[in-house]
Amino acid sequence: xxxxxxxxxxxxxxxxxxxxxxxxxxxxxxxxxxxxxxxxxxxxxxxxxxxxxxxxxxxxxxxxxxxxxxxxxxxxxxxxxxxxxxxxxxxxxxxxxxxxxxxxxxxxxxxxxxxxxxxxxxxxxxxxxxxxxxxxxxxxxxxxxxxxxxxxxxxxxxxxxxxxxxxxxxxxxxxxxxxxxxxxxxxxxxxxxxxxxxxxxxxxxxxxxxxxxxxxxxxxxxxxxxxxxxxxxxxxxxxxxxxxxxxxxxxxxxxxxxxxxxxxxxxxxxxxxxxxxxxxxxxxxxxxxxxxxxxxxxxxxxxxxxxxxxxxxxxxxxxxxxxxxxxxxxxxxxxxxxxxxxxxxxxxxxxxxxxxxxxxxxxxxxx
Length: 367
Prior knowledge:
Number of strands: 0
Radius of gyration: 21 Å
Largest sheet: none
Number of domains: 1
Structural class: mainly alpha
Helix content: over 70%
Strand content: under 5%
């Protein structure tokens, strides 16, 4: 019981860090273009994150039952703690250096690495690819829910932002610059708000899935058999094979509030990289980048795909910069960001794997 509570606390710590680490995803462009002050932008992002986190559970269900085969490996509290710690360390490290890495992929990498170690290197414990019942895009597993979207979402974000920016250039080529700037200063508030909302829908749900997975594991292990009535809400309903785990309302509320409070702190290091170092932005550029990114994340959330808001908005910013001219992008900064993207899953998976092995060697887990 104590370990389950520790998992919940560590998961909420990850959610809080996710909030201030990924704040830049929603507000970097609106701050860079000086449409809103940093404080105004942060509070707007916190509010929209809170609303978004309460909207749907498709991504949470993917994290809880779509990546790890709970019938082959016991996803114990120790496994989840190791997974979360691996993700938290990577998030703090990349935040310190101002690199917009993916909290989503950090968590997924940690979860897969910890599960693999707990399963004694049985790779079947990770659901690699499982087609859906009706459509190819509804498939489950690491391939369809993580690897393919990890590549496709930034590509979609880049080209959608590029095309939208070109379209705006064509439509507004004869308009007065002052009028265009004034219009998009207002429009960008809406686009930044939609980006914050989409960030909440996708990112907050990942921690919901981890907490639901912890409660499911404890319930399966019989740890909640003697729970008093007042704590009965912790007991999870065990899903049948192929079914999704239920995400209770209290988990949604707690995760939403935690992410919103983390967002309110702000992540100024990452905001500086996305909003200032990569490309010089005007309100029209910020509007195109945020709108494109929000559309991609909306589609992914609808399909239960835990995409990286960091990857999507970064690629969209590259897209709008490239629409001006390719030389407008500071490609040395892009190279640093790409390395962070590539390393996130391997590093967090490796860290979580090592942590589980250390606990096993110390006799604190079944070896």
